[in-house]
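Handout, tutorial session.
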Amino acid sequence: MDLKFSKVERKGPITIVTLSRPEVYNALHIDAHFELNKVFDDFAADPEQWVAVVTGAGDKAFCAGNDLKWQAAGGKRGWDKGGFAGLTARFDCDKPVIAAVNGVAMGGGFEIALACDLIIASENATFALPEPRVGLAALAGGLHRLPRQIGLKRAMGMILTARHVSAKEGHELGFVNEVVPQGEALAGALRWAEMITKNSPMSIRASKQTIRKGLAVSLEQAIEEQREYPAVKAMVASQDYIEGPKAFSEKRPPKWVGK
């Protein structure tokens, strides 16, 4: 696949996806969305890719959101089934995705980060859902994910004012997992990714799917139904399910195969 608006790099089972339109602070337009949707389709389908890290090109921005200048000039707006950047409407991927926020994460850029499972932010990162300032609304998931992740009143405080939030405050609010020095967002995210890959990918996928499905129903229903979730069934039927206890009893590191 010929990539024009993103870059993809592999580090073993870790896939690094870089949003690459630095001349517009990595703001995205329709062609970039369709390209990224294919990138994440490939990631989701490849059994050798276990964790993805998403970051932005350059040292100023993760993603400035929707390319408003493109839109104002008459550019067609829209995205593929995976949503903004191929991620915000991707509900069927049970592999972990980590946002390495290396600068500005505005509007759709913040919505990309919120759609990820973890957010590692550099000290200079800034987050906001500023859509109301330009007559829009954060309809790529931000209005739903932020209240679920930090609580209603805190989310309302950000959304209704459209104010900017620093990485430090984002950590205090609870949507940032770790704040790292400027320039180290990717390294920090890769450190988290490497910790994840020490675990069975089958267990990680079962855990992520169980959390996501369980949050949509009552606690009682979630516990009752969890063993019927597809990723949990796949984990129980996997080689990793045998290898883990065997390696523990033999006092050696497990050799995960992800199947």
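The second record follows below. Compare its token runs with those of the first.
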Amino acid sequence: MARKAKTEGADSAENAGRLKQIALTYKMTRRTDSKIGLIVAGVGLVTLGVLLGIGFAIGHPVYLGILGFVLAVLAMAIVFGRRAERAAFGQMEGQPGAAAAVLDRIGRGWTVTPAVAMNRSQDVVHRAVGKAGIVLVAEGNPNRVKALLASEKKKMARIVVDVPVHDIIVGNGEGQVPLKKVRTKMLKLPRVLAGPQVTGTNDRLRAMGDLMSNMPLPKGPMPKGMRMPRGGKMR
């Protein structure tokens, strides 16, 4: 009995935490998408209404009503998730460190090291290692980040010579990848490395070290006023 009560208590706490997270996501999304509540509710009502209409037409309003309710909740969740994601990218876009926040959510199979190269203008290069090889994701001024990317590639060439290296410059200009499409772009890269090769590559790169190894870095977008210390090593 005690174990059952403990399990039920844990489930209740988990559900409460999930509802709190949904409410917080809704509030954040509503700041940039004021109509999200009406749109999500409208999608649910239309879905339920269509299924109920079909149910009355074929003489099974109860069955179709239950199915309509389930599908309405599913449709509302999908629409809410997509609009919340779009709003989140809109709020992050243009902020230093936004790409690091996206990489942090890329999922399993990738090892992400934020800010392996940076300059005083807050142009940054992040590194991700997975079965597609090494992906360098740069954000900042397109002309300046090209120099950072070249420098990072040259340094890695001494350590990993048999691993493909891809580079992505975040932005909306020609040859750049919009922030919201970075994850999709990376997941579409061909997988050419086996698990042990990925582990070995990570070990070699970790031994090489990185710019931020001795400097604490907050998760997500970096504060706009953040600057490299004057004594810090630059690339």
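Points raised in discussion: The first helix runs from residue 2 to 30.
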